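#dry-run=false #mode=assembly
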Amino acid sequence: MDYRDQNSNRGSDHNRDRGRDQYKRRDGGQDQPHVEPLHSIKLRAGRRNYFFDVRPTKSEQDFYVVMTESKKMDDKITRSKIFLYKEDFIKFAEALNESTGIVLEKLKALGIEITPRKEEEHED
Amino acid sequence: MDYRDQNSNRGSDHNRDRGRDQYKRRDGGQDQPHVEPLHSIKLRAGRRNYFFDVRPTKSEQDFYVVMTESKKMDDKITRSKIFLYKEDFIKFAEALNESTGIVLEKLKALGIEITPRKEEEHED
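#status=ok
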């Protein structure tokens, strides 16, 4: 039995589209939840979780990173994904570093100390 | 005139929700497009753009980073946002670095060279 058939029988448009287009192109922004990621990291952050999945493309000659923010709001969970490909790794990391650096400078100027979140602060 | 009234008169559910809840809490995940970000970076990446905005909270005693992926697919533009707060900067950057590092190792093992994207490769 093809597990993709199972997926395509589910109700939402989201899953129907995934079943139809999942291997259409590398850049399609379709996540492939039935394919185990090569590597996965979960960060707990209050009412948010962040996931970092490394996934192969169909050809298995390329790999990409999917960052997911999973957020609990009023008992609903929403997910937001950003796809990142090798050509953009450096610029993306630089832009993130520049942006967080500006926050840290501003907080330092305000005399606010930054304490990284402890694991037990997760609310789920 | 209150600019929030202008927002709340727009048609989409998205904007209505924003008008209603934008200042409800720091962690609400509501972007505030009428408030200029403190700092903004745009990365062009093929049919994607990435944006990094540094924004103040309502109190102006804290700041956060919004990463946005704007993606052009079949002439439709979709946007996906990840919100990042100071408590999670270090772990987020570490997880991103670990994930992209695994991609780079895999590609190295396959003998594939990585060429960062040139500015003119943007399709828009």
